[in-house]
Amino acid sequence: MGKIAIFQESNSTQPQKPHILCSPRDSVSLSIAESDSRHFHALIADHAKDATDVYQLCQDWPNFRVASDGTTQAIPLLTLRVTIFPYQGLSIGLSFLHVAVDGPAFHHFVKSWASICKGQDFDGPTPVHDRTVVRDPNGLESTILQLQWSMAGPINFGSEPISKRLADMVRATFELSKAQIEGLKSWARAESPHFSSFVAVCSLVWVCFIKSREGEGGNGKGSEVCCFAFAADCRKRLGYPMPAGYFGNCLAFCHAVVEKGELLGGDGVIVGMKATGKRVGEAEDEPLKETAEWASVWKKYKERGVVFAVAGSPRLGAYDVDFGWGRPIKTDVIHIDSGSLFSLGESRNENGGIEVGLALSTAHMARFVAVWEQTLNLFSC
After folding, report:
1. Are 249 and 98 within 8 A, CB to CB?
2. Is residue 116 within a helix (H) or strand (E), and if so which, with residue range?
3. Active-site residue list
4. In Å, what is the CA distance from 49 to each residue of 54, 196, 250, 369, 372?
């Protein structure tokens, strides 16, 4: 496994384009730990629990190397931790840098690895590492790099203890059955017959989040805008053939903006569906429409504290990974503890269901649960 290398000349204010460097001596940092078996069932539970608990399942990021002249940083791309819970099970914690691969590529890697461990041939597409298959006729690369560097801070993993950064934070999983999702879409069908499960569920979570946050005094007036951000896989949307096994990042940044007062209204979920669905439709036709501005857009709404974003997708198939011990009992996306991010994945219990992961302060989580249950009852979901 290689490293990401960032080179910056001494007389330059911005680094050069990052590169992935590989050498015969490269390896992946692996740690093996043992935990009390009693913790196993607490960790796989869906109810709210201390947000710091899951971090024991992931390895601290190893120190990165800096060249003697101080101009080049070499940062590991992947770390692994296997935690054994005697007589109960084990956990495989994977941490990776998104700069190297996106979610579809990373899950492709994990499924390939699992198939090899199981002694089977992986029936997925062969990985393609050639970055030149992604065309850039409009020269977006330099624009994106410039915007990215203007936003980037110093690279400093683990600068603040997790226990301090996540004090009073809890995380929980909310499962929606296929019947509940279909009920939500059926309720909204009078407005549009074409709302997808992704649009319906994301809008539901977005509105419940905004409403539950009002208990903390809100965040500005009802006329203030709220931003929902998501990523779209572009492998089949660029207008030319892309290898199904492209191993890298091929995502488009998308966002929907709605006035907060509209989301707080009785038709808030419908309003959210319309805004999100409109942007999803635009991404089908023009996936790179917002690419040149995405960094500045994200920065603007993030600084105003009005952005809410989703990580993951039910299409990634996290529960399809099998190392030879059967399907996972529980999968979690760890990095959702910013208070403005939630995860989305397929249900482990039924096809067509969806799991939502969320991390909030203890008080905010209690309000979210109340709003969530009230909203589902309203829609008879």
Report:
1. yes
2. helix 103-118
3. 98, 322
4. 9, 31, 34, 13, 18
For residues 288 and 252, the answer to whether their CB atoms sit within 8 Å is: yes
Amino acid at 351: N
- What is the C-alpha separation between 192 and 200, in angstroms, rounded? 11
Fold agreement between 3-100 and 162-378 = yes
Sheet with 3-7, strands from edge to edge, namely 19-21, 3-7, 72-76, 65-66
Distance of CA 12 to the CA centre of its chain: 33
- Can you tell me which residue has the tokens 């059926």? 186
Angle (CA) 41-375-306 rounded to 5° is: 85
CB 75 within 8 A of CB 20: no
Q: What CA–CA distance (Å, rounded) separates 126 from 105? A: 11
Question: For 200, how many CA atoms within 13 A lie in the half-sphere containing its CB?
Answer: 27
pLDDT at 216 exceeding the cut of 80: no
d(CA 187, CA 192): 10
Residue 109: phi and psi, rounded to 5, are -65, -45
User: Of 14, 377, 375, 25, nearest to 203 (Cα)?
Assistant: 375
What whole-number distance in Å separates Cα of residue 116 and Cα of residue 114? 5
Q: Could you state, in order of their start, the residue ranges of all structural domains in the chain?
A: 3-100, 162-378
Helix (H) or strand (E) holding 341: strand 341-346
CA distance 320 to 316: 9
Predicted confidence (pLDDT) per residue in 230-252, tens digit: 999 999 999 999 998 899 999 98
Domain 3-100, classified CATH 3.30.559.10, yes or no:
yes
CATH class of 162-378: alpha beta
> pTM of the entire structure?
0.90
148 burial (CB, 10 Å; 0-12 / 13-18 / 19+) is middle
